[in-house]
Design goal:
By secondary structure, the chain is of the alpha/beta class. 39% of the residues lie in helices and 20% in strands. It has helices spanning 2-15, 51-69, 87-96, 130-140, 149-152, 175-191, 206-209, 226-233, 235-266, 290-293, 319-331, and strands at residues 30-35, 74-77, 101-108, 119-124, 197-203, 215-222, 274-283, 301-305, 308-316, 338-343, 346-347.
Length: 348
C-alpha cells in the first residue's frame, strides 16, 4: 500500500501537469466551473426539477459574479448548455486550461427521505461512511451514459464498493488546498446562504480524481426535499448559492496568493560551494507541507526552475554519496529520481 501511495503522488506531479505549461505565478488566474450532468444525463430528479438544470444555472451565475468582481480571472465552463459531457472530458477541460481551481456543482437526493436537507462540500478522498459512498456512487453513475467507460476508467464499476478503496490516495498533492477551499465554500453556504450544514466530506468522485489542481464538489441541497428543491429552482435561491460560492472563491484567492508569495520567498538558494542532491518530484504548484507528504525521505528541499517546483532529498558534498542515496530513494518507490548538482545555490 505504501508504494501505491508513492506511485499516485508521483503520477499526480509528473503526468497531470498540463501539456502546455505556463510559468507559475502567485496569482489565481483561471477557475473552471463544472455544472454536473447534462443532456441525456439528467442527474437527480425532483417533483418539478432536474439536477442538470439547477447546476447549470448556479454555475453560470457563479461565473458572472467572478467575472464582474475579478476581471483578471479567466472563467471556464465545462458546459454552458444542456449537453452531455463525459467526466474525463470535464477534467481534461480543467487541465488543458491550466486551471487553478475546479468547482463541480451538483444536487443531492435520497430516496424515501423527503425531509433530509442541507449542503455538503466534498474533496477527493476515502469515504468515511455509507452515506458519502452513496453520494459518490450516484454522481459517478454518469459514466454509464458514456460509450467507452470501461476503457476510459480502467474497468471502474461505479456500483462496486471495492472500486473506491484506491481513491483514498488520489489528489494527495492538492488535498490540503482542496480542503481549505471546501471549508470556505461550506461556511459561506451555511452562514451566508443560511443552508443546513452537513459538513465537509471526502469521497471518491471520478470527476475530481484526474484534475491537476485543487478541486471540490458541492452538493447544493436535496432535490428529493420539496422545500430545498423549490429553493434551488428559484432565482433568489440560485443567486444566494452562487454568491456564496463566489465569496468563498474570493477568500481562497486572497489566501492562496498571500501564501504563494510566502512560499516563493522561502524557496531561496542557501547553499555555498558544491552540493549534490537527489531530485525525485516535479510539480506545477508548491506542495503544502512537503515534509509530511514525503516523510520517508530526508532533508526535503524545493527549488523553482523553468516555472516548475522541483523537490530534492539529501545534501551531499560528494557525488558518490548522492548516488548511493539515490539508490535508496528509488527503492522507496521514486523510480525517476536522479542526482542534481548545485553550486552556490544554483543548479548546474
Amino acid at each position: 500500500m505504501k508504494y501505491r501511495l508513492i506511485f499516485f503522488i508521483t503520477f499526480m506531479c509528473f503526468w497531470l501537469v498540463p501539456t502546455d505549461n505556463k510559468a507559475q505565478t502567485t496569482k489565481i488566474q483561471t477557475v473552471v466551473l463544472d455544472a454536473g450532468h447534462g443532456g441525456k444525463d439528467g442527474g437527480a430528479v425532483g417533483k418539478q426539477g432536474k439536477e442538470k438544470d439547477i447546476t447549470l444555472a448556479v454555475a453560470k451565475k457563479t461565473g458572472e459574479y467572478i467575472k464582474q468582481n475579478y476581471p483578471d480571472v479567466k472563467v471556464v465552463y465545462t458546459r454552458t448548455t444542456d449537453v452531455f459531457v463525459e467526466l474525463m472530458e470535464r477534467a481534461r477541460i480543467a487541465n488543458s486550461n491550466n486551471a487553478d481551481v475546479f468547482i463541480s456543482i451538483h444536487c443531492n437526493s435520497v430516496a424515501n427521505a423527503s425531509k433530509t436537507n442541507g449542503v455538503e462540500t466534498f474533496i477527493m478522498g476515502e469515504h468515511r461512511n455509507n452515506a458519502n459512498l452513496d453520494v459518490a456512487k450516484r454522481e459517478n453513475a454518469s459514466i454509464l451514459y458514456e460509450n467507452d467507460a470501461m476503457d476510459n476508467y480502467d474497468g471502474f464499476d461505479p456500483n462496486s464498493t471495492e472500486a473506491y478503496i484506491a481513491f483514498s490516495f488520489l489528489q494527495s498533492e492538492y488535498k490540503q488546498r482542496s480542503l481549505e477551499f471546501a471549508e470556505l465554500v461550506q461556511n459561506e453556504l451555511v452562514y451566508k446562504a443560511k443552508r443546513g450544514d452537513r459538513g465537509v466530506q471526502q469521497a471518491g468522485f471520478l470527476v475530481l480524481y484526474k484534475t491537476a489542481m485543487p478541486s471540490i464538489l458541492i452538493e447544493l441541497g436535496f432535490i428529493s426535499n420539496p422545500d430545498e428543491e423549490q429553493y434551488m429552482m428559484s432565482g433568489d435561491g440560485q443567486d444566494r448559492l452562487a454568491s456564496a460560492i463566489y465569496r468563498a472563491f474570493g477568500k481562497y484567492k486572497a489566501h492562496y496568493e498571500k501564501e504563494s508569495v510566502r512560499l516563493k520567498q522561502e524557496i531561496t538558494p542557501k547553499d555555498e560551494g558544491v552540493v549534490y542532491k537527489v531530485q525525485f518530484a516535479t510539480c506545477n504548484q508548491p506542495v503544502n507541507k512537503p515534509e509530511n507528504v514525503y516523510k520517508d525521505l530526508q532533508d526535503i528541499e524545493c527549488y523553482e526552475h523553468n516555472g516548475m517546483f522541483k523537490y530534492t532529498a539529501g545534501r551531499f558534498t560528494k557525488e558518490a554519496d548522492a548516488i548511493k542515496y539515490k539508490r535508496e530513494v528509488v527503492k522507496k518507490g521514486y523510480k525517476d529520481a536522479f542526482v542534481v548538482k548545485f553550486e552556490n545555490g544554483e543548479r548546474k
